[in-house]
Amino acid sequence: MNRGVPLADVGALKKAGRRAFALRTAAVGVLALLVGGLALSTGVVHDSHKPTSASVVVLDVSGSIGPAATATIVRTLRVVSRQGGHAGLVLFSDQAQEAVPPTAPARTLLDYVRAFVGPTGSALVRNPWSDNFSAGTQIGRGLAAARLALRRAGIERGRVILVSDVSDAVDDASLMRRELLTYAREPHLELHLAAVPGADRQTIPLFRRLLGHKALAIGRPPAAAFAKEARGFPLAAVSIAVAIALLLAVYELTSAPLSWREAT
């Protein structure tokens, strides 16, 4: 049975008790803030789910892309899917459409393979976008859409794979060249060309000249942007948190709580 200790000066002790309780509460609060700050600084809870690198397949679905291009299209989608990570998909003809955001799992691209091959694996003559896109080809718009999609998603390292015959419309030639120069100048943005059979042999050298020989291959997924995430270990914060925890433990062990009642 827990009986209180009879004391005459209960009021003064109550004030001291409240003061001790306030000190313990403040210490626990500081400890919680330090632990929370530690989790944020090490990336445990802050944007840990947000990808920092991704790929985007820019797929030409204009009228010049026929069944002969199916093998290249399907191979590109499957390779990017197998490589893992995150990947998006941009479809373009005379306009561009973001079909899959770059934050999606790369395996999502496998869902689009069936749009180009039938149940027996044979190439389809028409794809689901044949009626919605015109026969025009605006490569510059497709490349711009992919670059902006990566920016909106906060991707720090991106790889864009253009699947096309690079037979660009005359009124898009200047935009396509500006986009190629933008990609060439951006160190954390790669552009690769997966040319389909029958590609324009006069345009391919432009890609090679501006982007290098490695641009004419699918390449590998971009490395994750570790520079921002790999922070140094916060030794000072950990030391303070451990010290506060030890002080609280010592205080509780050496200062067992007393209960009291007014003397009668």
Task: Tell me what the structure shows.
The structure is a single chain. The protein is an alpha/beta fold and 264 residues long. The chain folds into two domains: 5-45 and 236-262; 53-221, von Willebrand factor, type A domain (Rossmann fold), CATH 3.40.50.410. The protein is 40% helix and 15% strand. It is built from seven helices and seven strands; from the N terminus they run E-H-E-H-E-E-H-E-H-E-H-H-H-E. The chain has helices at 10-41, 70-83, 139-152, 173-185, 204-211, 226-229, 235-254; strands at 5-7, 53-60, 87-92, 96-100, 157-164, 189-195, 260-262. The strands form two sheets. It has a five-stranded mixed sheet, sandwiched between helices. It has a two-stranded parallel ribbon with strand order 1-7. The model is unreliable at 43-48 and 225-232 (pLDDT under 50).
- Please mark out the parts with pLDDT under 50 across 5 or more consecutive residues, or reply none: 43-48, 225-232
Question: Looking at CATH, which topology of the largest domain would you report?
Answer: Rossmann fold
Q: Approximately what portion of the residues adopt beta-strand conformation?
A: 15-25%
Distance between the termini: 19 Å
Which outline best applies?
elongated
Lateral strand order in the biggest sheet: 4-3-2-5-6
The named CATH superfamily of the largest domain:
von Willebrand factor, type A domain
Extended strand count = 7
| Structural class label | alpha/beta
Radius of gyration: 31 Å
* CATH architecture descriptor name of the largest domain: 3-Layer(aba) Sandwich
